[in-house]
Amino acid sequence: MPCLCAGETQELRAELQSGQREKKVDAVKKVIANMTVGKDVSALFTDVVNCIQTENIELKKLVYLYLINYAKTQPDTALLAVNTFVKDANDPNPLVRALAIRTMGCIRVERITEYLCEPLARCLKDDDPYVRKTAAMCVAKLYDISAELVVDRGFVDSLRDLVSDPNPTVVANAVAALNEIAETSGDDSVLELSTSALQKLLAALNECTEWGQVSILDALAKYAPSDAKDATSIIERVGPRLQHANSAVVMSAVKVILRYMKCVDAESEQASGLRKKLAPPLVTLLNSELEEITYVALRNINLIVQSDPRILEGEIKVFFCKYNDPIYVKLEKLEIMIRLVSERNVDQVLLEFKEYAQEVDVDFVRRAVRAIGRCAIKLEKAAQRCINVLLELIQTKVNYVVQEAVIVTKDIFRRYPQKYESIIATLCENLESLDEPEAKASMIWIIGEYAEQIENADDLLETFLESFADETSPVQLQLLTAAVKLFLKQPSLTSSHDMVQRALSLATDDANFVNPDLRDRGLVYWRLLSSNPDAAKAVVLADKPTIADDTHALDADLLDDLLGRIATLASVFHKPPEAFVARDARAGLGGAQADDVEAYDDFDLEVAPDGVASPDVDDQQQQHQRAPPLDVAKPPNGGAPVDPFGGASSAAASVPAAVAPPAAKQGNGEVDLLDMDGFDGLDGGGPAVPAVPAPRALAPPSGLLDLAPGGTPPLSSSPSSMPPPPPRRAKAVVCQPSQQSGGLGIAACFDLVDGRPALELDVSNRSARPVRSLAIQFNKSPFGVAPASAQLTFSQPISPASVASYTVPVVCAPQMVNHQAFDPNAPQLQIQIAMKNNDTGAVFYYAVPLPFDVLWSPDGAVERSTFIETWKSIDDALETFGTVNDLPTGPSIEAAQHKLVAKHAFHVARRSVPNAEGQEVVYFSIKTIGPDHYHFLVELTFKAGFNACKICVKTTAQPFAHLAKAAIENILRSP
Amino acid sequence: MTLSCLFVMDLKGKVIISRNYRGDVPMSVSEKFAQYIQEKDETEMRPIFTDEGYTFAYIKHNNLYLMCATKRNSNVALLLMYLHRLMGVFKDYFGELDEESIRDNFVIIYELMDETMDFGYPQAMDSKILREFITQESNRHVSAPRPPVAVTNAVSWRSEGIKHRKNEIFLDVIEKLNLLVSSTGAVLNSEIVGAIKMKSFLSGMPELKLGLNDKLMFEATGRPMTRGKAVELEDIKFHQCVRLARFENDRTISFIPPDGEFDLMTYRLSTHVKPLIWVEAVVEPHSHSRIEYMIKAKSQFKSRSVANSVDIIVPVPHDVDSPSFKSSIGTVTYLPDRNAIVWSIKQFNGAREYLMRAHFGLPSVSSEDPEHWKAPIECRFEIPYFTVSGIQVRYLKIIEKSGYQALPWVRYITQNGDYQLRMV
């Protein structure tokens, strides 16, 4: 930061010390002017602070402003100002009192804060509402600096009192401050309102400023109505706000009404009346003079129509794009139009889409073409009309229009197999304009799929095959599959047969080792074709499940959450707040800056996530299910399962030698299907065929060949001779594949693996590229859990459309401990995790629940005497109780004990309870890993003849007691 | 719903003045914003974006950006409205808002930034009230100003004790017609966006009641409409002075107006409206030599009304040359920078039809650029003494305890809004 030169500083100092008021004011102004342009004027701190005692309010404001900016740099000198602050807070002029309180709250210097409490308490009860409203906000400021101070001084209660203040502006600020505190502390109970306070709020809604109305409405949106009647009465009071000129008020009112409508029967007359009432204000929001507001409104309307399209079903016309709409507005309108399109309005909508498809902006044009395809997929009865429009567009011969049309046509075929084939001829006329991989891949898929109906399918494929080496991997994969399809459909055709050989050899050629997917798919086909052509037919030409248009559709839970956050950033990004609010852990994952911005634009061009990049995914799935036929090819020396990753050569060499397909015999190329010499070379000239993986090895743990769409757990590859592993926790999907995650989906859980805590991951890759390695980082947590290694490198890249499992050992690191991150009311611990795809740089976030028992240390055993001592030393008030009924293991104490011991709860003693016949108690000791080593003492009480047990947990780590109790309950309930 | 810091920046993203309200976002985030506006492709820019956990929302005015940053899940509608309103306050204070006026008034700007927002929550934003205690001449104040009662009052937009020698109030009913016509001549969407603007010069604390020929009001009160027809307004938005709960109850528009100019209400009707001015274009392109236009304009309103300052804007290819025009009325000009011709007609009477022909040369080597072919024809006009919706002010009752008589003046105007006719 540039500083003032010495001369200037001297001069200003002299002026600041001047006795003339005018001169002083001018000097402070000059100082502030320098501050404004970014010069460092902290050298004048003392001189400026000395000007603070003045009657001139303008001068005072300037000095205060200066203090706010520089107090942190010179806290000691800033303390000089405290006296003035305290005096000003008693000034007869309310403006001065408020100014002092407002400024003190902004000076984030602890020692000054201490002096704030007294004046603040007084100002909260000031006669002048201007002072009270400023003081209310100051409580929120103080909470941000020192939450304890606010709680200790009872300021939260003072705020609650102010909610019933006679002045509406004070009420609004008090609610805003409470809202703020609830958000900062994560404790919504701060906002809990009594019925009378609620009535006060609703009354203030009619009287306070428009900004205050937003505060009140946002607080109401968090309030849970007790019943339908309660909800209805609040909706009635909030309803008039829909008529407010301020769009922010309208949007918050919409939020409250939608929230409370959930208590009203959705089919009732009342609900339909409310829907009618909501539509006009939503439409008006689009007419805002502010394009930015229109954008926010559109993003929110997108959410609203997803949850209930009836609200705007008759209004599709208002979403028609105007020529001069900004592009971000146009794209949003398009999205909403697709959501609202129905058989009633489809003709008009198609005309619009056609119009857009002829505009200038390439991105928008593509979206429009795609929108036509999505209409066809959505509305079966209108599909033919959509296709006619697509045909008209293809006739324009505009390169990118044709390509986009080809891509959507493929999706239409996937939705309506064996229908609308007439379009194929037109598509085939436009092959030469295809130069984008996605369009090419789609066209090739169509040719393969409809090979028997395309007269010159072989010629067409031949043209593509010529440039095989230069194509991208999705195109190569499609070419390979299409060649196989053609061969299976028309085996009599010589050309088809030549082609399949060429395709197979190109795919398995060692030049393609960079692309193991292609090679593996080639080998699978090869083996299928050579062993059992009928099976090959059944697999490759199997019926595919049809697709539906669910582009950009949000998960129901997320949608519901977002509807409660209307008008906030989350509703604009369509992401939960955790996904974009700043967190401490972010700093470590550098390099994400530029990409992040991209990540929030979920305007991806993809249609169904699994529909585009690899239309043959389903083929692959079929292969899986039909894996057994491969057994036919069991080679003579095939026996023990072999690590399928032993090397490319062993996998390659596993092509059976025994069975020759008839086709191969006629082969005239240099590469015969049986030409094992070709593979010998790979094997270092060895005598080939070391071993063949057992059929199930086709789905190795890394999911190399598991081309099933994400979410399907890979088949187990553990050899059957191993003892059955202990029951594992089920992984839960914690991150859906999305644009932000770069197409990666994550299912995860924390569990003990070999007695040590670990994070178990299933990474499913829905992107078009293989994933080689990921970086992982945990956010700080109360136990300091951290991955043992920040890098996950896969021995084999996770290829597109496959799933890989990975176990990340977890350790506890003191520097990762953050006690603030613990919410004592949360039912379980959650670890926030950031992951970065090292190949693409995409960073994404998710949270995984951390079962408490995973944190139990293996060295938690204690001596009996120590246990008894500790037990006695802890106050009985710190006991936490629970009961588990219907134990799955029956009333057996041993069984329960066994289960707990397996989880590192150490058995200490067992005894019968004196004076209570049939009652027995068992004691356990539990210690947690991590730097803090919390100790939990557990007592289980059983009563003979009752299949139940009582749990008592005693600990000094009281905040975690309920977690320990819950974990024990869960263990006991587990089968 | 908070914002953390506020920046006023120039077009390159250089900070002119800023204010940090919460201290949880470093002021250096302005650099990230500067990077965004400089490096992002225009089509990729969004008015709201996130970068490393910091979210930015901004509006642009003249050659300035007004930007705020937050790291919470803030109420972004509120942030944008605040920015917009703050811009309005600045304009009220300094006239036109630009870099210079901000630099010249930085002390006042700081004061305004402090008074309109506290800890990221908008406070008083009415410039008339703000002026009562934040003034450019505070040096000359004999005694320190006090906060006006209005700042915290339920009536936060009007101070007590206002005096006018002549008590008058002016009402302008201005309707804008939004219209989208397809290339086949079908009306795709038509919509009336109306506003009732007021200029109030009334003394004291007057209670006003406005009566419109609102169909729902007649239904609500059960009174029959005596003459003329009633209008069904689809959605109405009111200035904060109007008592919304009262309106919800019995459709009465009652309020205490601010002093001076304000928009009392806006309303919207999406009824099917006959395009007031219909334009048809016949284009005959002769590739590589010339292009000819025949434009027909027809007024479809009553013959006793007149549309003033009619501009019909027709897009032409960007590489045309040697224009020549022939029209039965008005003047035609070629605007090369907009790639359009403008046919201006000072007075266009109702139920008339006029023709205009334009002729251009085309270069023999032409770059095929479809852009200006696809732009729609636009039309601007203003028709006084007429509203498309038929809305009427039936009465404006003014009651003040001093009992003065005040005169309401009412004026009706219809204008074009987004008025677009797509070309074939």
UniProtKB/TrEMBL annotation, chain A:
Supply one GO BP term: intracellular protein transport
Query: Where is it predominantly found?
Result: membrane
The record's HEAT repeats, renumbered to this chain, cover 155-193
Source superkingdom: Eukaryota
Q: A cellular component term (GO) from this record?
A: endomembrane system
Occurrences of domain Beta-adaptin appendage C-terminal subdomain (ranges): 856-973
Task: Identify the InterPro entries for this entry.
Answer: AP_beta (IPR026739), AP_complex_bsu_1_2_4 (IPR016342), ARM-like (IPR011989), ARM-type_fold (IPR016024), B-adaptin_app_sub_C (IPR015151), Clathrin/coatomer_adapt-like_N (IPR002553), Clathrin_app_Ig-like_sf (IPR013041), Clathrin_b-adaptin_app_Ig-like (IPR013037)
One Pfam family from the record: Adaptin_N
Disordered: annotated span: 608-650, 707-731
Subcellular location(s) per record: Endomembrane system
Q: Which keywords does this Swiss-Prot/TrEMBL entry list?
A: Membrane, Protein transport, Transport
Q: Which GO terms describe its molecular function?
A: clathrin binding
Similarity comment text for this entry? Belongs to the adaptor complexes large subunit family.
Protein name per its UniProtKB record: AP complex subunit beta
Species for this entry: Chrysophaeum taylorii
UniProtKB/TrEMBL annotation, chain B:
Q: Which GO terms describe its biological process?
A: intracellular protein transport; vesicle-mediated transport
Q: Which Gene3D superfamilies match?
A: 3.30.450.60, Mu homology domain, subdomain B (2.60.40.1170)
Q: What is its main location?
A: membrane
Asked if the Swiss-Prot or TrEMBL record annotates the protein with the keyword Glycoprotein, the reply is no
Boundaries of every MHD domain copy: 166-422
Question: Does the keyword Signal belong to this entry?
Answer: no
**Keyword tags:** Membrane, Protein transport, Transport
Record SUPFAM superfamilies: Second domain of Mu2 adaptin subunit (ap50) of ap2 adaptor, SNARE-like
PROSITE patterns named among the record's database cross-references: CLAT_ADAPTOR_M_1 (PS00990), CLAT_ADAPTOR_M_2 (PS00991), MHD (PS51072)
Q: Which InterPro entries match?
A: Adaptor_comp_med_subunit (IPR050431), AP2_Mu_C_sf (IPR036168), AP_mu_sigma_su (IPR022775), Clathrin_mu (IPR001392), Clathrin_mu_CS (IPR018240), Longin-like_dom_sf (IPR011012), MHD (IPR028565)
**CDD domains the record matches:** AP-1_Mu1_Cterm, AP1_Mu_N
**CC per GO annotation:** clathrin adaptor complex; endomembrane system
Subcellular localization is given as: Endomembrane system
Q: Which PANTHER family match?
A: AP COMPLEX SUBUNIT MU
Give the family this protein belongs to, as stated in its UniProt record. Belongs to the adaptor complexes medium subunit family.
- The molecule here is called MHD domain-containing protein
Species, as recorded: Chrysophaeum taylorii
What is the taxonomic lineage of the source species?
A: Eukaryota, Sar, Stramenopiles, Ochrophyta, Pelagophyceae
